[in-house]
Predict the structure.
Amino acid sequence: MSFKNSASGTALLKNLWQDNPVFRQVLGICSTLAVTNLVLNTLLMCGGLIFATALTSLTVSLLRDYTPKQVRMMVQVLIAAAYVIVVDIAIRAFFPEVHKVIGPYVGLIITNCIIMGRAEAYACKNPPLPSFCDGLGAGIGYSLVLLSIAVVREVAGFGTLLGFTLPRLDLWWHQWTILVMPPGAFFMLALVAWLANSFVVKPANTGGAK
Amino acid sequence: MITPLLATATPGAPEHGLLLQLLVIFLAAAFTDNILLTRFLGMCSFLAISRQMKTSLGLGVAVALVTTATAGLNYLVHRFITVPLGIEFLELIIFIVVIAAFVQLVEMVVERVSLPLYFALGIFLPLITVNCAILGVSLFMLNKAGYGFWQCLVFGAGSGFGWMLAILLMAGIRQRLKTDKIPAGLQGAGITLIITGIIALAFVGFSGMIKF
């Protein structure tokens, strides 16, 4: 059985595109969307989110037989919080400048719906390895969408990419301030939801796309 | 978090100075710095619940109450427990537990005191524990230098009110949208996000008016 067809492989791959949490339900955008006006901030946040989601899923799955049903939500939140604290300390140590800007948002990864969603929907009833891959896939799939939003916002709004000024700006670039302001993120996300609705979720229905 | 937090308002400031400052904090948190429209917190429940006016009102009130109370509680925790003990890095976990415990407590009290209110708010209270707006308020207020107890409490109240305002505006608009023709791909989340963006633009327009 190849990796692609194994339980772990399916769990990892289907979250990247078909079941991508942002495409399906626009879930989990809180906290991360706010930092998508710079690619570097988004990369750090997404890295933290992937780390926290994958390891939370793994831990929830390892503990699934010992967790009483009534308190499992609380247990999941606490597990997520422990990993997010690790991320928080790491970002504070390695990127102190960035941490000043995105600090509170890093803490908010705890309440990101994706972590709880994957723990509740998959990890609490599946073995550890597929759960880990499921969390990893959900995190990566989500990050790809947010990174694409961040690239558009940073290039159009600041004319830079990862902080480097792009060449020959005067020829093709005009500052699009609205995209670095909060409303810009809403419009970009609406565009993503539109494209996803038209091409990913219902491939037959392309009536909405231009 | 790392920034040392000062205690209450500047000593010796006249009383109306504090009140004015609190009013500015409230307005800024509710309008120019709206937690949903400029910080995107609480989006998940916003998108899911804003279909109906009645449920939006219920959730909005619940969020506003819990945000206010947990902002005050978490400030006290921060000032009297985590900072003296030097365990600020554990604040994330502690804040979540405080919020969950408070929500549970409110649920029990409301059940005893008023059954109609319990049934009206009941389903929303568990949802709130994982609403990022609540935790967000607790984290953001600690980033603001010089906020004391009253400032934090009012910041929480303003943020909660702003969230309620945003979801009520959205619910009102979405009720009208039901009969409108919308491109198939934009139905649901897509059109909601575009409208939220436009509302956010309007709120950003306030930003020059309040400096804090």
In short: Residues 107 and 125 of chain B are 7 Å apart (CA to CA). The first helix of chain B runs from residue 15 to 32. The two ends of chain B are 20 Å apart (CA to CA). Residues 1-14 of chain B have pLDDT under 50 and may be disordered.
